[in-house]
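Re: the multi-chain job from yesterday

Posting the exact lines I submitted so nobody has to dig through the queue logs.
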Amino acid sequence: MDGVRLQISGLHCGYMTPDRGLVPAVEGVDLALNRNEFVSIIGPSGCGKSTLFNIIAGLLKPTSGEVALDGKEIVGRPGHVAYMMQRDLLLPWRTILDNVVLGPELAGKPMEPVRNRALALLRRFGLEGYENSYPTALSGGMRQRAALLRTIMCERSVVLLDEPFGALDALTRATMHEWLLGIQREFQQTMILITHDPDEAVYLSDRVYVATPRPMSFAGIVPITLPYDRGRDVTMTPEFADHKRQVLALLRGDKGATDALH
Amino acid sequence: MNAQKTNHASFLSRLGDAALPLGIVVALLAIWEAAVHLLQIQPFVLPAPTEIFKELMISGPTVILPQLHVTMAETMAGYLAAIVVAAVLSVLILYSSAFRRGVLPLVVASQTIPIITMAPVLVIWFGYNSLPRIIITAIVAFFPLTIAAVTGLKSLEPHFIDFFRSLNATPAQIFFKLRLPVALPSIFGGLKVAATLAVIGATISEWVGASQGIGYLIAQDTALLNTTRVFASLTVLGIAGMALFGLVGLIERLSMPWIYARPTMAWLRAQRSPQSPAAAVARPRQ
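And the result, structure tokens for all chains:
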């Protein structure tokens, strides 16, 4: 397919445990991510979604299978995708500005232009005036925005988001959804989101991959045909409800409920 | 302007904090003074605080301070040596499992020997100079420092390492930009304990085979039943020990502004960069 950024094929991964031997965590996962696409992976907790992300990020080697980024094999090679983990993992001893420039700093980039770019983006991320604050001074939503800015500052072609809003309250969460979609459109980011919230998945995504319980594979893919520019109102429409119904049906293992292909 | 006001308010409230322990000390001294006079205790058994103060005025500058100078020089030399040894040991313990399994038990075993009993032997080996005392001071101080540093360097949550690895960080970057900052509070805890131990180590080591130093002076005065001057020396030693402890505490506060983001820190940073707005200065969330 034209414009494929990330291609995962035939991925298998298992863990050795002392009492049960080799336990499979990921079994036969295929995924294709197009340029500027927003894809969600939804599945029950502990189904192996984070294992999949750790493989894509190069932190974990799969038993078999391929992961190609822009046509280049990246299995076991970290640093090629930007990875935002479940907790914000802001470094408490660094100011917000020093936190968000961490990626380029570790890569040995010249820091002057990086810092200037970060200062300019802090406003867009609602963190203006906090550049010299330490993370403890920030609210949960602000911390997540800082963590996302740090992820985007890495300037990778694919961004992995592992339940970034899981710890936020419902109201903050809804605001963050709208904001994240704006950021993704504005900065033309290619993103994969892990979630167990069907509303979050349908609202944010171009396509939703529905995962099975452990060992993880995909029960189906739901293409989201909602308009590209979608406000929060879209969640009240019958179309939104239809998409959500398809996702929930696949989650329940009801394969006949949708014509989506595996 | 507003920040200035907060500074004054905070200074006054800190003065209030200091008033309570100060009051307790004054009260205890008064009880001590009264008890010595009422019970007619001999000065060589327990001198009154006023007598100790008089002795301080008389022999403090001429006798005690020169000896304190010797002891504090040994303390600092031993303390710095302990810091270097602890830094090397903790990195070796952290990164080498062979070292951890082979050498760490020996280091622990060395601490079960009362090191002061080694003092005469060290004098035989290294002679009548300050070197044996610096060695004893270092041996006393390095152990808590090493344990504190290793504990701190290991206290990292694994998520942070995964995060740094996902950014393709080198092992050196993971150490200096992640492990070390995480370990700082623990390391400074060790530095404070080691500072007090270094003063004790240097003083006690002067009881054996020394011809100068405040420990030597205390040993001499004890033998001569000059208890008043012993207490005067102990007072000076206590103040010196607290000063060293306070110095380490000050360095701690300056090294970890993310923990000690108090008005004083805000003031210091405002001096450095006058254009930065005071509102942007971090304060820990309530």
